[in-house]
Amino acid sequence: MERKKAPPGHDIIVVGASTGGVEALAALVQQFQPDLSAAVFVCVHIPPQATSVLPTILERSGLLPARHAIDGELIQPGRIYVAPPDFHLLVERGYARVMRGPRENRSRPAVDPLFRSAARVYGPRVIGVVLTGALNDGTAGLLAVKRRGGLAVVQDPADAFFPSMPESALEYVKADYCLPLDEIGPLLMRLAREPAPAESAFPVPEEMEEEAKILEMDEITMESEQRPGKISVFTCPECKGPLWELRDGDLLRFRCRQGHAFTGETMMAEQTDAVEDALWTALNILQESAQMSERMAAESRQRSRNFAAAHFDEMAREKWGRADTLRRVLLNANNEAPPNEAAPDEAQA
Q1: What are the structural domain ranges in the chain?
Q2: Which of 86, 220, 276, 327 is the most exposed place for a label (fewest CB within 10 A)?
Q3: What is the Cα–Cα distance from 228 to 202, expressed in whole angstroms?
């Protein structure tokens, strides 16, 4: 008599973090035992030009092998796959994908694409874990994990170095567990062994499928005029194209024709940066224009055109005055506004 095959456990663990994430991940992997029956996928925000040493840090911190994921490599339990700098890490059936694709939430790699891809393919077998970080990358991805029957684990914000990401996840997602960092590892070890519900009970939503194709820049999808959500009045801060407005429960999101994606909070952060860039550009133009006016005044005086010289002198004073006003605005903004996100820990490490 043929023995019935045991249902799979929660054998796909996806972990997202940002500010404070390297220290938190090192503490988390220290709690894993060699017999962990799940594959672990990790995404931390790091600058595209950085040299990532995160796999080395994680391997030295714990007992599991860790490496930057390689496009197309087979997924094995008991291993840690890390998103390389400037590449999204995605999960396909049985193998990992590493691709550039459009940035999400101002980042590449980003947490949401990793979580969404795992949820799309493995459904209830996925555990999504959101750790310390700024803004709210990971919230939409954790919603996707829950919609497909997976489990949501969030670090207690009071225990996080930077609580924004955990707080956002808890605000918009009905988390299954909210724990201090030192309790998450043993929980994941236990959950990985528990059987997961049947995938058929949680079908893939159409918009999740479509967003996956947009991120992968599928030719047919990119050429289509149809996009999830409704067209908005805003333009993409990245490519200046139109933005479509999406709703994940109460979470407001935007995605453009080329695939760049933002939550409402990251859109505001991007627009704030754009305003500052524009002000610095205006300051530079005003200073150059004032200097040109002074040059024209000097030229006029050399040619005994005193009326013209006085006119150019007045223009120069007016432009220097405007430049001084702009400079004060920029200094006050830089002194008073809190940072959108602190420098990534991995760069410091």
Answers
A1: 12-201, 266-340
A2: 220
A3: 20
Count of beta carbons in the 10 Å neighbourhood of residue 282: 14
pTM (2 d.p.): 0.84
Q: How far apart are CA 83 and CA 335, in angstroms?
A: 34
Q: Which of 52, 107, 117, 137 is catalytic?
A: 137
Q: What angle do CA 154, 156, 161 make, to 5 degrees?
A: 105
- Whether 159 is a known active-site residue: answer no
CATH of domain 12-201: 3.40.50.180
Selected catalytic residue, list 45, 52, 107, 293: 45
* Active site annotation includes 45: yes
> How confident is the model over 160-170, as pLDDT tens digits?
999 999 999 99
**Buried/exposed code over 230-244 (b: 16+ C-beta within 10 A; e: otherwise):** eebeeebbbeeeebb
What is the Cα–Cα distance from 24 to 16, expressed in whole angstroms? 10
Cα separation, 194 vs 113, in Å, equals 26
| Interior/surface letters 63-90, b for 16+ CB within 10 angstroms, e for the rest | ebebbbbeeeeebebbbbbbbbbbbbbb
